[in-house]
Amino acid sequence: MSTPSGAPARIGIVTKRGLAATDHLERVDRWLRARGIEAVYETETAVAAQLAGAVTCDRDDLPDRVDLMLVLGGDGTLLSMAARIAKARRDVPILGVNFGSLGFLTETRIDELDGALEAVLAGTALYDERTMLTADLWRGGERFDTRIVLNDVVFTKGALSRMIELSVSVGESLVTMVKADGLIVASATGSTAYNLAAGGPIMHPRVDALALTPIAPHTLTNRPIVIPGSEIIEVRPHIDQGADDIYVTYDGQFGYPLKPGDLLRIRKHDRTLRLVKALGRSYFELLREKLKWGERGGRT
What is the pTM assigned to this prediction? Predict the structure, then answer.
């Protein structure tokens, strides 16, 4: 956790597509202008909010234009911007604001936004540094694709498939042959996403580790495993020509079917992502609220 100095001169603003946030954006715009901060809006956000005369920018280009990213919406919107920041190799922190129940990533409530921005400008905000993952797909002996993710890389079966087979290695050692509905390779941050729903372990975001979690495994002894974050994971799908499809998806944002002979190599990315911490709320408080820990039966 860190507390960097220096107030941002330009703040990028992105909202979840379809989110009715016009009133909030107009208020934020006035708030920033009064403090001499330039707001740079993602183009679709500015159009949806009908912000006449706003400075706009394509979502892919925003990381190169701003010093802080303000994301209003949910975890999915934040994940999409995290990948763009990593690709741009910029140290642009994200302040994630959730309009509904708290997200694991967008942990600041809309009524806490002013206080969070004040802390950022004053240099008193706390930042979590989150590990990201790089996934390289090798096809025919050449690197076919590279993706950067914050949460997870997920292997799943096609809609009509029964079960898939994956060979999983860590470093030079074969771990197992997974026969299951799928496999999740999750960072510590991603441990509370799909990994949690599939019965995987919760890892504190500062833990330097990765989780391998089978989805509905054929063998009940094939359990989730936590490995050091320094390791390289290799996943080889076992696909026969004409057999059922195996898909890989990255942070739930993008994906495609794999082919026979493909190899996916997953490792820790060389840069981290900084997230602005919610004021006065710890990670464990967030877990208690999201997972309803400590509540009696029947309470909601």
Answer: 0.90
